[in-house]
Write a structure and sequence with these properties.
Layout: E1 8-10, H1 12-20, E2 25-32, E3 37-41, E4 57-60, H2 65-75, E5 83-86, H3 92-95, E6 101-105, H4 109-115, E7 121-124, E8 134-140, H5 141-146, H6 148-167, H7 169-179, H8 187-201, H9 204-209, H10 216-228, H11 241-246
Helix pairs in contact: 6-7, 7-8
């Protein structure tokens, strides 16, 4: 909002919250086609579907309670049948048996556990009706009106970069580690994360229309899920005109 950046990256629920407070933002592209929220569990007490949560202890940040509640509402699961255990964002409570599952991102804690040789079952919430656009590109209405060419150029760069990423995720991981030597990144972990991120970033929709795409149907699904999260939004939150130009629609 201060004009220090041309484009921001945020999830649709956070963008909706900002707009509700007066921020003049529009979602102009959707990087992650599937929301990365997931339920991670051990095979001995696997959560393969939302109904499997009943009777289990789930470790999570209390701030994510609306997310779990929405998943339960969508799938007809009794939230009261699940014991929520407040935890830090850490795999330890699951590995040590304090909880039977964790609410996390599919590409971080499950990867960390896999790198330690721990077998994990990962249930992606997006596969069970939780539709919230994540890693969206957002811009102000002023930028859309006055810096349209710059926005288009930046989005074209994103399209090109992610296409290269998809072709060689190992190279993308190595580039990241090399560019940020002080970040404490482990190359093998980054390689695994990169591989797991591809199915979240690309879909049949992007194959047909191009990277970052969204449709009236995906917007409608988002509006329904956002309402369960207490965010009332309209289709005006999204603007696809830049992607139309980027992909030549």
């Amino acid at each position: 909002m201060a004009g220090q950046a041309l484009i921001g990256i945020s999830a649709a629920d956070y963008t909706a919250a900002a707009v509700d407070k007066g921020a003049p933002f529009k979602i102009i592209g959707v990087a992650m086609q599937k929301n990365p929220f997931a339920i991670a569990s051990l095979p001995a007490s696997a959560v393969n579907a939302p109904a499997d949560l009943v009777g289990k202890r789930i470790g999570m940040a209390m701030a994510n309670t609306p997310v779990l509640k929405a998943l339960c509402q969508i799938n007809g699961v009794d939230l009261n049948g699940i014991e929520i255990v407040p935890t830090q964002y850490d795999a330890a409570p699951l590995v040590t048996g304090q909880v039977e599952c964790l609410l996390c991102w599919a590409i971080d804690l499950p990867v960390a556990m896999a790198m330690q040789g721990v077998e994990i079952v990962t249930m992606l919430m997006a596969d069970h009706g939780y539709a919230v656009h994540s890693q969206t590109y957002i811009a102000t209405e002023d930028s859309l009106a006055n810096r349209r060419d710059d926005l288009i150029a930046l989005l074209k760069g994103e399209v090109t970069g992610w296409a290269d990423y998809r072709k060689d995720t190992d190279a993308a991981a190595k580039l990241t580690v090399d560019m940020f030597p002080d970040a404490g990144l482990d190359l093998e972990t980054q390689k695994e994360q990169a591989k797991r991120e591809v199915p979240l970033m690309f879909s049949d929709l992007t194959a047909e229309n191009g990277f970052g795409w969204f449709t009236d149907d995906t917007i409608a699904a988002n509006i329904e899920t956002l309402a369960l999260l207490g965010r009332e939004v309209t289709t005006d939150l999204w603007n696809r005109s830049l992607l139309d130009t980027v992909h030549g629609s």
